[in-house]
Amino acid sequence: FYVLNFTGSQVAGFYVNAGKLTALPGSPYTLSAAPIAITVAPNNAFLYVSTLSGIYVYTIASSGQLTLGNSANAISGDQATSMQVDSTNSWLVEAVSGAATAFAVHVSPSTGLPASTIEETVALPNTTIQQVAISPDNTFAFVAMGSGGTAIIPFNAGNTNPFGKISTIPAKNSAGAAISVAVDPITSTTTTPRLLYVGETAASSGSNTGGLRVFTYGTFQEISGSPFAIDGLAPSSILPFSTGDFVYVLNRQVSGSSTGIIKGYSIASSNSVLTLTALGSTFSVGTNPQAMVEDNTGAFVFAVNFGGNPDLRGFTIDATNAGILDPVISGATGTDPVQANAIAAMH
Fold first, then answer.
1. Is 203:176 a contact under the CB 8 Å cutoff?
2. Contact status, residue 41 vs residue 14, Cβ threshold 8 Å
3. What are the pLDDT digits (tens) for 218-244?
4. What are φ and ψ of residue 70, in 5° steps?
5. Taking the CB of the first residue and of the last residue of the chain, which one, N or C, has fewer CB atoms within 10 A?
6. Is 70 helix (H, G, I), strand (E, B) or coil?
7. In the 8-state DSSP scheme, what is residue 161?
């Protein structure tokens, strides 16, 4: 997996060896400008890094080592706030905060480089870009747009311009904002995603007013019980677990505390009706956590903290208590303070 260190402008690569955090060969890798966002292509061949000087592509060796591609030139001048590669490895979908536009860079699945000099676009109804997600069945792209709600964009990788006509899920409350979005995985027992998740501020009651909104995928009707209280203020990252049994929400802020937490939910189905049930515990992460991922083995969940304490925390799923996260790794991702602001893992 790979972490962006904002201070020092680095990509730091790691793997877990005998329970210890171990740097990949050649890590850390110095960037030309401060990093913003990061994503790994589904074929695990390419890593894309958005910086203040544009988007760069790295090839990923079997060892995980990175090599900067495109003769060290940016493949796009966009300062992407968030980005993801579609399941065909043919489109890098991204959006830039301050621009009411989503972009699709046509890339080669074999080289990771642009296959066209033209970026396809679709106009968004809001300029406050928070996060981009593509459904694993390659049918929709989603953009969390702050107070503008969440954009639903039909997506077809086979079209010259993969974007269709946008619709929008408004924020739950007028004072709220959509700041994260994620889609259920396709599992061994499902052929399409089941649920869409949107993390919003000011979506539930009490002192911690952040909420997880959950929608039936395809119809995008909100399920019973949504929004679900997340015991925090700012749901900065949502992780539907690869088995389809759990979903986790990373809270960047919690009322009365400087430590962020992860809130988890189990997912159950009865007569084709899906329900979420909160796990009995929350899990401490660090100061101002930004993002979390599941590693490609399904053994670990990793989260990075912009404020440190620590830079990175890793968890395993408890062997006897379903869905409970056990902290097993805690470490620095560089010479502190690094302000770790994003993380991506091999698929």
1. yes
2. no
3. 999 999 999 999 999 999 999 999 999
4. 55, 35
5. C
6. helix
7. S
Q: Helical H runs in 134-207?
A: none
- Max distance between CA atoms of the chain, in angstroms, equals 55
Tokens read off for 115: 């296959």
**Average pLDDT of the chain to the nearest whole number:** 97
Quickly count helices (H) and strands (E) in the chain. 0, 29
The closest of 170, 169, 166 to 155, measured between CA atoms, is 166
Q: What is d(CA 236, CA 289) in angstroms, rounded to the nearest whole number?
A: 8
Q: Residue 276: which H helix or E strand, with range? A: strand 273-287
pLDDT at 49 over 90: yes
| Average pLDDT value for residue range 83-101 | 97
Radius of gyration of the chain (CA): 19
Site of tokens 């303070």: 337
Position of tokens 């792209």?
141
List residues bridging with 37 in a β-sheet: 50
Nearest to 243 by CA among 199, 299, 326, 198: 299
- 169-187: pLDDT as tens digits: 999 999 999 999 999 999 9
Calpha distance 163→153 (Å, rounded): 6
Comparing CA positions, the residue from 75, 118, 71, 79 lying closest to residue 96 is 79
Nearest to 2 by CA among 53, 54, 72, 56: 56
290-315: per-residue pLDDT in tens?
999 999 999 999 999 999 999 999 99
Main-chain phi, psi angles of 86, to 5 degrees? -70, 170
**DSSP assignment letter at 157:** T
What are φ and ψ of residue 2, in 5° steps?
-135, 140
Predicted local confidence at residue 304, as pLDDT? 98
Q: At 289, which helix (H) or strand (E)?
A: strand 289-294
Q: Residue written as tokens 């079209």?
A: 159
Q: What is the C-alpha separation between 78 and 72, in angstroms, rounded?
A: 16
pLDDT at position 18 is: 83
